[in-house]
Amino acid sequence: MTRRRHLVRTGTMFTAALLLAAACGSDSEPKTPKPGEKVGGTVSVLGAWSGSEQDSFLAMVKPWEEETGAKVKYTGTRDISTQLTTGLASGNTPDLAGIPGPSQLQEFYDKGAAKSLDFVDVDKYSSSTPPGFADLGKAEDGKLVGVFIRASVKGLVYYNTKGAYKPGTPKTLDELNQSARAAATGPTKQWCIGLESGAASGWPGTDWIEDIVLRQSGSEVYDKWVKGKQKWTSPEIKKAFQTFGEAANNSHGGARYINNTAFGKAANPIFAKPQGCLLHHQASFITDFFQNEGGAKEGDYDFIRFPDIDPRHSGAVTGGGDLFSMFNDTPQARSLMQYLITPQAQAIWVKRGGTISGNKDVPVADYPDAAARKAAGILQAAKTFRFDASDQVPAAMNDAFTKAVIAYVADQSKLDSILTELDKAQADAYNE
């Protein structure tokens, strides 16, 4: 190396060191705007919503845009994990993004991508959300990293109120199955199931299995399963798959139809004449799809809570929610994040239908129909509540789970080999 090159390099390094010292010595943390303060600029948001759900989110942020002068640039995708991972590798991440679940939130936080939300009043946020929700958004170091802007109750069984069959109040799944199968005459089947959802295809089936595990084997098995300490080949998990398989065997259209029908269109045969099926298992958000995909109107549908399986585990409820995190710490991102968790913001989507607020302070009167009010009541009254299992496991485990559901529906005789492969995926995913 020549002396000239050494001096140039030394001078460059010294200048860089001065700049770094100046940055560290100054208050470079973005300002946290006051509610409604003019901030201008833009916020890029990556979410899982499309169609009417996207419309509702945009309606939700419109008052914030008008008050702050900032604009939301929204991109919707069902494959958020891949989009975020790709963006992180290229250095092109959105300002705010939905996260599939708490486990993946921790992974993005560990990589330095998801930022701490230390500008959020944690105590106030915790008291306004369902029990346990705030903790699901915290990293292992105790910092709040994600917040819920929507909640959902899973394990609801919908039916056509104007159809020939109404399930009443069955005490057990066996009781529901017996009465529904007796009523499912001719071409009409008991269930309608659809698992297609792009890169995330299979997730409606994971919801089925999670509901069954919790009600069939209890919260202890469920929690061990989520933590990777309950083998997929164990009798409890195998039995849950088989119980789901029985429903698939009594579903409209057969295996190929189930795997290739979009989840948002799966319930359409319930509202057809004659009915193609009598029952549909889904989360509380699905009513938006009933109206926009199936042509149903308010009053055409109602639901019961998924019945108990083992009475020792009665009153169990599974649920989920839309977890949001910040990837670029800007005043605009902070301002929008603070707005999204308010009851005023969430009430906008609630009034449009198809959601349950992640904020308990949204008035019950704001829910547009009896079904929504009933779903919110189930969430509040649950004896045992567990967050969606597939949204809590590592991303690789989640991906393997959804693919396994598709494979199982296609050929139930391969269950043992499918579960063995899931054991292998579990060993890899939890040891990374």
**Overall number of strands:** 11
Unreliable stretches covering 5 or more consecutive residues? 1-27
Radius of gyration, rounded? 24 Å
Task: Summarize the helix and strand pattern as letters.
Answer: HEHEHEHHHEEHEHHHHEHEEHHEHEHH
CATH architecture of the largest domain: 3-Layer(aba) Sandwich
For the biggest sheet, the summary is: 7 strands, mixed
**Range of strand content:** 5-15%
Q: Average pLDDT value? A: 90
* Estimated structural class: alpha/beta
Fourth-level CATH superfamily of the largest domain: Periplasmic binding protein-like II
Q: CATH fold name of the largest domain, please? A: D-Maltodextrin-Binding Protein, domain 2
Name the shape in a single word: globular
The first-level CATH class name of the largest domain = Alpha Beta
Count the domains: 2
The share of residues in helices is 40-55%
Q: How many H/I helices? A: 17
Instruction: Note the gap between the termini.
Output: 42 Å
Short description:
Helix content is 46%, strand content 14%.
Characterization of the model:
Strand 1 (42-47), helix 2 and strand 2 form a beta-alpha-beta unit. The two termini are 42 Å apart. The chain contains 17 helices and 11 strands. The longest helix is centred in the N-terminal third of the chain and has 23 residues, at 3-25. Mean pLDDT is 90; it is low at 1-27. It has helices spanning 3-25, 51-68, 80-90, 102-110, 122-127, 133-136, 173-183, 203-217, 219-226, 235-249, 254-260, 287-293, 331-340, 343-352, 370-381, 395-410, 415-429, and strands at residues 42-47, 71-76, 96-99, 146-153, 156-160, 189-191, 277-282, 301-305, 316-326, 356-357, 384-387. The radius of gyration is 24 Å and the shape is globular. The strands form 2 sheets. Strands 1, 2, 3, 4, 9, 10 and 11 form a 7-stranded mixed sheet that branches. It has a 4-stranded mixed sheet with strand order 6-7-5-8, with helices on both faces. It is of the alpha/beta class and 432 residues long. The chain folds into 2 domains: 42-152 and 320-387, Periplasmic binding protein-like II (D-Maltodextrin-Binding Protein, domain 2); 156-318 and 389-429, D-Maltodextrin-Binding Protein, domain 2, CATH 3.40.190.10.
